[in-house]
Every structure is written in structure tokens, then in C-alpha cells.
Specification:
The N terminus is likely disordered. The chain has 700 residues and is α+β, with helices and mostly antiparallel strands. Helix content is 47%, strand content 14%.
Length: 700
């Protein structure tokens, strides 16, 4: 989801309570599990009760993009709709110096013209099983944190492998409520994904950075793909019917998507750690990368094309963290969090049984956070690879670790190498997406310089540089490596430990050099931070269930969730902001800014202005509870029909990572009527419109 620099001006002190849990009172709050929907709340507030069939249909019509983001099936022939900015990674990888799809867009007139994505995997959630008792039974309470971590990893990997073998699906055990519950999710995956249509960037991201996280908006942030099986369009049973009328002001809508990560259940001490350590560090790191890529981009038009996807991603991340930090620095938000935490702790301590079982949880979180502070820097530099940032190094590390991990029993492997994840890992590892040596050298040189700055006295730093400057060492490593060659990657992967040990590739040698220290700090983090936090938060979750009941949703985990809300405007600076904009407003918006970039509509829109109905609804806002990862999520009405697609939030949504409010915070979507109007009258994509309307016969 796009983000914004400015902080929210909402008076969080007006919130009646900022919940440590997500228990609802009078708001449209909640990123709900499909196997625990907010049925009671919807019935009481909106007189709507979703049936099991309604939920299953929406669940199986929803799509997760492995590149980050959401989407949905919108035809029986495998047509998938998502955002242009979710598709940006694929558009970048399919572009060439002669044909920049990000800039000029793409329209496949025939099926044979649809472009196959390099390494895009889509997942559809087919089943959910609560396996909490099975996981907990495998981890006795008397185990040490290290033993508990190993036991938990073992049982999760075994369940995933067994389920994958039995179903043929990609299965993973998802941790919910930060350890309070575990669910087994099984996904059908699609790896033959082809680009069908994308508009020009100038309309997909109309208004650019100045308009990002603003409203009103005028963006056609939409792209269509098609999934194939056996070289033919996949036949889809569960797809969303299209509403050409779309939604209107005051209407109840639903969002089915994959919100990435929230921290609403975190203790105040944990939030303070994020405020004081994690966010400031990460912001400085992102600012550094942003400057680096901007300078690189300014050297030539081709450099700009090569770096634009990375730069866009880093700018988004920086803005998201800056907005989150603003929320954490808001005394009203933190005071509300503190009061909610104290109320929950008081309720626990009042009950002798709850006190005995859960009373120590908050202190346990504090101890784990203290350990995290001590190893934060080393963990980020070595295990998370911030000291070696490059595609080459990521590839080398995967190859080196695969050689060490795959011979082990499945239950003992690092999680990314577990059997149920192996096909997806190989699909990504053997991608034929372009890698540019000059950009790689620039990125790695800066990363090595950062390593020297952050760990100047570490013996490993000297070994990594090998007597050279960061720039010279980076050039030596990148220019001397053969890992850009897919065939070489396959040779090393299939050759296992013998091939890795014998390799003289400088990047493989670097990954081998770093691996022992990186594994050490990873083990320390998993056993002394992750596992204690998981156990402590599991106690807090169980205490919450005991006190507040079942109307509680977990923090976001990039897994499928259901949100709901009204199409509704908001008040800002004493002015009422309408819920909907129209297509004519885009031309007016351009004129108000003197037709200067980034407020310049593409030529296709200027040429066809007289052909479209200018009063067609374009973008709209709702009170639905969304966050990054929801980008591309379908917005549906009570009938389950598509009325829009999520693409952003307004500036008041910046604090939703930590606390929900619908006073001013809004989700921003593209209206379904505008999509049809643009496809038909601006782009001449009549075949696509007919497919969305369900009127076109198979084939073309």
C-alpha cells in the first residue's frame, strides 16, 4: 500500500479505548479470520449475516501475490485483478530499454500476446485447520527456550509436509495472536501467470508522491493478469461477479485481502522499543538507500528505468515507517495503550487462576525485548543481510544454505528450506528476471561501507573487505561472480555441498565466510527473543480470550482477512471531504496544478476526454480496516460483487499499525465503474470488458 510522509492529525485522545486486543465496540474495526468472522457485529450493526457459502466463495476468489499484495479472480478463465503498484515488480522485470511497460502500459489484444511473468507466484487459500492444540502439545512447558523453539519448528514442519503430501497444495502453519493460536493454511499456487493489461504509470499513480496518502484521489491503480494451467487459461469456479454500478455513499462494503503486519497486540514496552530503536534505525537505513538510488537514477534514463522499482519500494517503506513512528511518538496513542494494558493486567491479577498462569507475561516480554536490544545491530547486518545488500549475495546465501540444510531431516531445517516451501524457493531462485551488474555494484559497495560504519571493529568486517575498499571489493565480487547465470545456479543447487565447497565463485565464498556468524546470531535471536516473545504473547492472548471472549481478531500476518466498512467521507481542516470523486475531477486536478508532472494525465486520457462520461465515479473512501498488503484487495458488496479495488489509505490511516480509528482514517479504492469506463472508452479493451461482464465466450 502506498504511504505518506506526513503524520496523522487525528486526535487519538478522543478514542474511547485503543485496544490491546481487537475487540470491537462501535467501530468498523477488524482484520478478521475467515474461520472466525465478525458475524455478531455485522448482524447487530448492519443487519447482515454472511453465510458459510458467501465466505467460502470470497475466500477462494481472493489471491495472494508472493511479491507482496492482494488480488482476486474476476472471471472463470483465470483473470486476476490487482493494483498497478502490486504488479510493478513484474512490469519492471518484463520491461526492456526499448519498451518500458511501467511508463507506456500494456494491453494484450489476444491470448497469445499475454506476457508470462518471470517469477510471480499467486496463492489461493483453499482450507484452514486450527492446529493450536497439536502445536502446544508438542511443546511441553518445562522445555528451555531453545528446546521449545526446536520442538515447535519440528511439529510445524511435520504438519506442513504431511498436509502438502496429502493435498498437493502449499501448506504452512500460521502463527496467530503472536503465539496464542496456530492454524494450518493450505494454498493452491499458480506459477504460470501472464500479464493482460496495465495502464500507464501516469494514471495509475496520478499525482505521484505529492498526492500519496492524500484524498481526494484520481488514480486508475489497476492491472490484470491471467493464470494458466497446462498452458491453458485456468478454469476458476470461484470468481467475483462485477458490479458496473459499483458502490454509493453510505453503502456497506467488504474487503478480502492480505494485510501485511500490525502491532496492535504489542505491549507498551514492546512499542517503546519499536519507537526508540527499530524505527529510527530502519528510517536511517532507508534514507541512505533512497539517496543512493536517486543519485544512480539521475545518471541516465536507463539507470532510472533499472532502479525505479527498488526506489519506489524503498520510498514506500520509508514513508510507512515514518508514519508509524509518528503514531508511536503521539502521547495520546501511547497513553491509551498504557491504560488498556493496565486494565487487562489488573483483570488478570484480580483472578488467582489467571494471575498464576498469565501474570508474568508482560515481564517476560520485557526480558525478551532487552535481549533484542543487545543483538539488534548484529542481527540486522549479518542475518538480515543489510551489510551485503545485493541480488547476488541473496542468491549465494540461498545456495550455500540449501547445500547445508537440505540433507537434514525436514523438521530440523531452517524454516525457509522446509519441504512444503521448497518448490516456491526454487521457483524464485531460478528466476530469469534481469540483474544489472552496475546497479549491483553500487548497492553492494554502499552495503559494505555501511558494514564498516556499523561494525568497524569486528574481525569479520576485515575478512569481508579482504584488504580492499568497499567500492573495489564490491566490483570484484560482482564482476567475478557467475550467479547471474540461471544454469550456474541450478548446477550449484543440484550439486549440493560438494559443488558449494568446490566453488571458487567470489560471491559463494563471501556467503560461506559470513554464514557461521550469521547463523549464530539468528539462533540467538530465535531462541532468546522470538521464542520467549511467542510464549509470553500466547499467555496474553489466552488471558484476553478468558476476559473478553471470542470477538477478537489477531494482528495482521499477510494471511487472508475480512474487513468491512461504510463508504463514507470525513472532515478535515473544517471541510467535509466527499466519499467519491469522479473521472472529470482528474482533468480538473491536472489543470489546478498547471499540467505539470506528476499531475499530467497520459496522452490516451487527454485524447479520449470527450469519449468518457466525466461524472463516472472514480475513487472512493470507506471505513474498512486495512494496512499495507491489502493493496489490490477486492472491495465487494453484500452480494459479493466487485465494487472496487483497494489501493491506498489517507494520511489519517498512518497509525493503524498500532491502533484503529474511523474518525478520519479511510481506505482508498478505485471504483468498479471507472475501471469499465476506462477499459472500454479510453483503451478500447472491449474483450476485457466483456470478460468482466461474463458475456464473452471462452477463447478469443
Amino acid at each position: 500500500m502506498m504511504t505518506r510522509l506526513r503524520r496523522s492529525g487525528v486526535a487519538l485522545a478522543t478514542l474511547s479505548m485503543v485496544m490491546l486486543t481487537a475487540s470491537l465496540v462501535h467501530s468498523d474495526e477488524g482484520m478478521w479470520l475467515f474461520n472466525n468472522p465478525p458475524t455478531r457485529i455485522l448482524k447487530e450493526r448492519y443487519n447482515f449475516e454472511p453465510t458459510a457459502q458467501w465466505l467460502e466463495h470470497l475466500q477462494r476468489a481472493s489471491v495472494r501475490f508472493n511479491s507482496g499484495g492482494s488480488g482476486s479472480f474476476v472471471s472463470a478463465e483465470g483473470l486476476v485483478m490487482t493494483n498497478h503498484h502490486v504488479a510493478a515488480d513484474t512490469l519492471y522485470k518484463l520491461s526492456t530499454p526499448e519498451r518500458d511497460l511501467m511508463s507506456v502500459g500494456f494491453h494484450a489484444q489476444r491470448r497469445e500476446d499475454e506476457l508470462k511473468a518471470k517469477d510471480l507466484e499467486l496463492n489461493v487459500l483453499m482450507s484452514i485447520e486450527d492446529v493450536t492444540d497439536k502445536v502446544n502439545a508438542a511443546v511441553p512447558k518445562d522445555l528451555s527456550p531453545g528446546e521449545a523453539f526446536a520442538a515447535r519448528r519440528k511439529v510445524m514442519s511435520e504438519m506442513e509436509a504431511e498436509a502438502s503430501k496429502a493435498t498437493g497444495l502449499r501448506c504452512e502453519v500460521v502463527t496467530l495472536y503472536q503465539g496464542g493460536a496456530y492454524h494450518l493454511y493450505c494454498f493452491k499456487k499458480y506459477t504460470d501467470v501472464r500479464l493482460v493489461f496495465a495502464p500507464e504509470k501516469d494514471i495509475a499513480f496520478f499525482g505521484g508522491d505529492p498526492d500519496n496518502f492524500e484524498y481526494p484521489r484520481y488514480c486508475l491503480d489497476v492491472t490484470f493478469f491471467r493464470v494458466y494451467e497446462n498452458d491453458k487459461p485456468a478454469k476458476i469456479d470461484h470468481f467475483l461477479a462485477w458490479s458496473e454500478a459499483g458502490c454509493k455513499d453510505g453503502e456497506l462494503t467488504f474487503v478480502s485481502g492480505h494485510p501485511g503486519r500490525t502491532s496492535r497486540l504489542n505491549t507498551v514496552g514492546h512499542l517503546q522499543y519499536m519507537r526508540d530503536v527499530q524505527f529510527p534505525y530502519l528510517l536511517n537505513y532507508l534514507r541512505r538507500l533512497e539517496v543512493l538510488l536517486k543519485v544512480y537514477s539521475e545518471r541516465s534514463a536507463e539507470n532510472e528505468r533499472r532502479a525505479q522499482d527498488d526506489l519506489f519500494s524503498i520510498q514506500n517503506s520509508r514513508k510507512a515507517r515514518l508514519g508509524g513512528l509518528a503514531g508511536l511518538q503521539d502521547p495520546a496513542l501511547m497513553q491509551a495503550k498504557l491504560e488498556a494494558e493496565e486494565a487487562l493486567r489488573a483483570a488478570v491479577m484480580k483472578d488467582p487462576k489467571l494471575r498464576e498462569e498469565y501474570g508474568s507475561a508482560w515481564d517476560e516480554v520485557g526480558k525478551a525485548i532487552a535481549k533484542a536490544r543487545n543483538i539488534f545491530l548484529t542481527y540486522n547486518m549479518l542475518e538480515r543481510g543489510q551489510g551485503f545488500s545485493s541480488e547476488h549475495f541473496s542468491t549465494a546465501r540461498t545456495l550455500v544454505r540449501a547445500a547445508a540444510e537440505l540433507p537434514k531431516p525436514n523438521a530440523e531445517r531452517l524454516r525457509e528450506f522446509r519441504e512444503s516451501n521448497l518448490e516456491s524457493l526454487k521457483f524464485s531462485l531460478f528466476s530469469e528476471a534481469p540483474v544489472y551488474d552496475d546497479l549491483e555494484v553500487v548497492r553492494l559497495a554502499d552495503a559494505l561501507s555501511y558494514l564498516v560504519e556499523q561494525m568497524p571493529n569486528a574481525a569479520l568486517t576485515g575478512l569481508v573487505l579482504n584488504g580492499k575498499s568497499p567500492r573495489d571489493r564490491a566490483a570484484e565480487l560482482i564482476r567475478g561472480s557467475k550467479l547471474k547465470d540461471v544454469a550456474e545456479r541450478k548446477r550449484l543447487f543440484e550439486g549440493g555441498a560438494a559443488a558449494i565447497d568446490a566453488s571458487t565463485d567470489p560471491m559463494i565464498k563471501l556467503a560461506r565466510l559470513v554464514d557461521a556468524d550469521a547463523r549464530k546470531v539468528r539462533k540467538e535471536y530465535e531462541e532468546q527473543v522470538d521464542e520467549p516473545l511467542r510464549q509470553a504473547y500466547a499467555k496474553i492472548a489466552r488471558a484476553t480470550f478468558a476476559i473478553k471472549g471470542s470477538d477478537v481478531y489477531p494482528d495482521a500476518t499477510f494471511t487472508l482477512r475480512l474487513a468491512f466498512g461504510e463508504v463514507k467521507g470525513f472532515e478535515e481542516d473544517g471541510k467535509q471531504i466527499p466519499a467519491l470523486t469522479n473521472m472529470g475531477g482528474a482533468y480538473e486536478h491536472m489543470a489546478r496544478h498547471g499540467s505539470k508532472a506528476p499531475f499530467v494525465l497520459p496522452k490516451s486520457w487527454i485524447d479520449k476526454k470527450n469519449a468518457i462520461s466525466l461524472d463516472t465515479p472514480f475513487n472512493f473512501v470507506s471505513t474498512a480496516d486495512i494496512i499495507g498488503g491489502n493493496s489490490g484487495s477486492p472491495v465487494v458488496n453484500r452480494k459479493g460483487e466487485v465494487v472496487g479495488i483497494i489501493f491506498d489509505g489517507n494520511i489519517h490511516s498512518l497509525t493503524l499499525d498500532f491502533a484503529f480509528t474511523d474518525v478520519q482514517a479511510r481506505a482508498v479504492s478505485v471504483h468498479s465503474a471507472a475501471i469499465i469506463e476506462a477499459l472500454e472508452k479510453i483503451y478500447g479493451a472491449t474483450h476485457l470488458v466483456e470478460e468482466l461482464r461474463g458475456k464473452r465466450a471462452a477463447g478469443r
